[in-house]
Design goal:
two-stranded antiparallel sheet; 21 helices; globular
Length: 482
């Protein structure tokens, strides 16, 4: 076992131990485990929101996208900034409603605002199904990180198992408080790891960072335009729109607990103002991706660019540090996603009669969700590859109903909201798996969202007309009796 592997494994264990230390007292009910006492400070909420927004995609995906598609990778910086603009308005309202209604999950919002347990169950299923591939991505990404850093596929697989078991352990033990504690460490590691990586790359490229872009401009000018095949301006605009809606309007269930746990709406607004500072850090993987164009073979796997360059430019112990930072960027979101999935299932889909039974059901769901994602990651890593494309697009189908539900008075009916969600998910699934439908580089989630809105509006008009007819009939009967 080389130094890189030793440092990586020890780092994963330390991350889990930090998570275990987050527990103050045994959780006796799901509310304490999921959202604490709803009094988290601005500081804690900051790290929770950042920890769940910046994932393995920040390390592997952005560098790989810049390597293959050039400046199109900047779409991630755009949509995350827009996310926070939207969250400035939506997150405090979600917290206000959650405090008033005792929400623990995203689906609770639908049950309360639309007075429909059935809609809550449908949302729970949609949320759990579309978050599962996102969880599998984090776990598989962690294995890839260790494999690339150490050169050992077996070591990568065992690290996936170890990290998943440890993550499940500290989540069961500490709940959201453990995630918050690890998020502090994760952000520090992430920033240090990215800085070490970019310094190593800058030293290796003639002319440093400025020389990298000068050479790219002269030798690969197309990478500085939105003219790459599959990554044109249409891709850029539609990807930014669908991703902004998905993150900014609370369509992802695992983003709700930090909002519901916040001590005040002011904390959430403050975070929305200052969290875009992380965009500075996210610029580093983009720089690394461009450097990869100059330092690596054009046949290199895009997702391997960042850690391959780390291995070529840094000593083994520093590669281990970068790998630990990347691992933390997988473990924190994994923990949050597991909480999001398990709380939806135990609270809204399989509700128990007592608080203790509900918490026990939740813990079973934690283990089941993590185990399923791990098994798929080990045995069939490509099985959910296509489904991953559905994560943002699928969850965005909840956006119209969320927007209407945030209003002071909900004017949308539960049936139209339900029909719109089902129609959007069905169209998205058909466009993704049906085959033979060429939509170019337009994000399929956006097309499905358009169908969703049309179906919702038509259904609302029809339901409204029938309701008006019933009211007129009642009035007529009353007048006849009078």
């Amino acid at each position: 076992m080389n130094a890189t592997m030793v440092i990586t494994v020890l780092g994963i264990v330390v991350i889990a131990l930090v998570g275990v230390s987050g527990r103050r007292a045994p959780s006796r009910e799901l509310g304490e485990w999921t959202v604490g006492k709803r009094r988290f400070s601005t500081f804690t909420t900051w790290f929770l929101q950042a920890g769940e927004s910046f994932t393995t995609f920040s390390f592997l995906g952005l560098a790989g996208l810049a390597f293959g598609a050039g400046v199109a990778a900047s779409y991630a910086l755009c949509y995350l900034a827009i996310n926070f603009v939207l969250q400035y308005f939506t997150a405090p309202r979600m917290r206000e409603l959650g405090l008033r209604g005792g929400y623990l999950t995203q689906a609770d919002f639908f049950v309360d605002r639309y007075r429909s347990p059935l809609l809550g169950k449908v949302v729970a299923v949609v949320g759990a199904v579309f978050l599962l591939p996102y969880l599998q991505l984090q776990i598989t990404g962690l294995g890839m990180i260790v494999q690339l850093a150490t050169g050992s596929r077996t070591g990568g697989n065992w690290s996936m198992v170890l990290a998943t078991v440890l993550t499940v352990g500290f989540v069961l033990w500490s709940g959201i408080r453990g995630i918050a504690r690890v998020a502090y460490l994760k952000d520090a590691l992430m920033i240090v790891g990215l800085v070490v990586l970019v310094v190593g790359v800058a030293v290796s490229v003639h002319g440093g960072i400025s020389g990298t872009f000068t050479t790219i401009r002269d030798a690969h000018p197309s990478l500085l335009t939105l003219d790459q095949e599959g990554y044109d301006s249409t891709f850029f605009v539609t990807a930014v729109i669908i991703s902004s809606i998905g993150g900014g309007l609370g369509t992802m269930a695992h983003l709700w607990p930090p909002v519901l746990a916040a001590g005040s709406g002011r904390s959430l607004r403050s975070n929305a103002v200052w969290l875009p500072l992380y965009q500075i850090a996210l610029g580093i993987p983009v720089i690394v991706g461009f450097a990869g164009v100059l330092l690596l073979s054009k046949d290199a796997a895009p997702n391997s660019v960042a850690l391959t360059l780390a291995g070529q430019t840094l000593p083994g112990w520093l590669v281990g540090l970068v790998a630990v930072a990347a691992a933390s960027a997988a473990m924190v979101p994994s923990a949050a996603i597991v909480v999001g999935i398990s709380s939806l299932l135990s609270r809204n889909l399989f509700p128990a009669r007592t608080a203790r039974a509900q918490l026990r059901t939740n813990h079973v769901c934690v283990v089941a969700a993590a185990a399923l994602a791990l098994v798929l990651g080990l045995l069939r890593p490509g099985l959910l590859a296509d489904m991953l494309l559905l994560t943002y697009g699928g969850l965005t189908q909840l956006a119209p109903a969320i927007v209407m539900g945030l209003a002071k008075r909900v004017r949308l009916g539960a049936v139209p909201a339900l029909l719109g969600i089902v129609a959007g998910v069905a169209v998205l699934t058909w466009l993704t798996f049906g085959g033979g439908v060429d939509v170019g580089t337009v994000d399929t989630g956006l097309i499905a969202l358009g169908v969703n809105v049309v179906v919702t509006v038509v259904a609302q008009v029809l339901v409204g007309d029938r309701r008006a007819e019933r009211e007129r009939a009642v009035e007529a009967v009353g007048a006849g009796v009078g």
